[in-house]
Specification:
This protein is an alpha+beta fold. 58% of the residues lie in helices and 14% in strands. The structure holds adenosine-5'-diphosphate. The site of adenosine-5'-diphosphate has 20 residues, from helix 4 and helix 6.
């Protein structure tokens, strides 16, 4: 009887030890699994960062290397164009055939020049992103009147043709003054405006607004294009992001999905903010803000 009790006590004891040992083994295994997963996640993260670094390096080298020959090709084409222009002169004795040849050659050169401009635009975009990644985008701050910059942009038909109606609404009898890199801010406005033109029908107007809001200047570009779904609005500021299904209606420029990313970086480096308001099918309003001059001076 006593022996039975002692044996069952021992068995219970052994069972407890066994279950404790099992729990410890399970704990050890799950700790090892966790460690393995953490190590795997670290390796993946390192690999992702390395891939990102290599891509940035490639983009930087490729865009720098492409820029030099492109500039030289463009220069030569323009020089050649000018020479051809002076050769097509009714006062110079030329056969009809020669004259016809010169006219055709000039037209061909003009088309080549346009293609080179498209290519240069793409390479510049890549160059800008590589500067952003390397933190080497330089800004030259000066006092600027935003209303003047806006007028300069809309008067330049390189950005929007004369056939497009662009209204501009700025405060009357008052300049909106900021401390900014005028060329960079111009670049953002041009980009917003070019997109509005690019993605909306030519017979629909574009409106540019400028006003002061508290301590900030507020600029917005409103179009009547297809608009952008709410789920996509966050992503359009990311590098290389393009919204599927949005068609280019008026431009021969190839988009890489870089312009808004560059614009956001420029504005944020001025301590401003960017954003978009849009209801699909009812157009989009892209905006950005910049601290007014007094606000910038207080921060200095
Ligand atoms: P991209 O050079 O491709 O136009 P962006 O960075 O300027 O690059 O814009 C990213 C994407 O956001 C575009 O590809 C387009 O899908 C969308 N987008 C930008 N502006 C507009 C607009 N005004 N209306 C509709 N979609 C737009």
């Amino acid at each position: 009887m006593k022996t039975n009790k002692a044996t069952s006590g021992l068995l219970r004891f052994l069972l407890r030890i066994f279950s404790i040992a099992l729990k410890m083994i399970a704990l050890l295994i799950s700790r090892e699994v966790l460690r393995y997963k953490q190590a795997e996640a670290r390796t993946k993260d390192l690999a992702r960062r390395e891939a990102q670094r290599r891509m940035n390096e490639f983009v930087s080298i490729a865009s720098h290397e492409l820029k030099t020959p492109l500039t030289s090709i463009k220069g030569n084409i323009q020089l050649m164009g000018r020479r051809l222009k002076t050769s097509i002169d009714p006062n110079i004795a030329q056969s009809d055939e020669t004259r016809q040849f010169l006219v055709e050659a000039r037209a061909l050169l003009e088309r080549t020049d346009q293609q080179i401009s498209r290519l240069t635009h793409l390479v510049n975009g890549l160059l800008e992103t590589s500067r952003i990644n390397a933190n080497t985008m330089e800004l030259f701050f000066e006092i600027c009147e935003l209303d003047k910059i806006l007028h300069e942009v809309i008067q330049d038909t390189r950005y929007v043709p004369e056939t497009r109606t662009v209204h501009i609404k700025v405060p009357e009898n008052k300049s909106v003054i900021v401390m900014a890199d005028a060329n960079r801010i111009k670049q953002v406005i041009i980009h917003y405006l070019s997109n509005a033109h690019k993605y909306s029908a030519i017979d629909h107007p574009i409106i540019i607004y400028l006003h002061e809001e508290g301590q900030m200047a507020h600029i917005s570009v409103q179009d009547e294009g297809p608009g952008i779904p709410a789920s996509e609005q966050r992503h359009i500021w990311e590098r290389f992001y393009r919204v599927p299904g949005i068609e280019v209606l008026n431009s021969s420029e190839v988009g890489l999905g870089l312009g808004l990313h560059i614009s956001r970086t420029i504005v944020e480096q001025h301590h401003g903010r960017v954003g978009v308001q849009s209801i699909p099918g009812r157009g989009a309003t892209f905006w950005f803000t910049l601290p007014l001059l007094q606000e910038s001076l207080q921060k200095l």
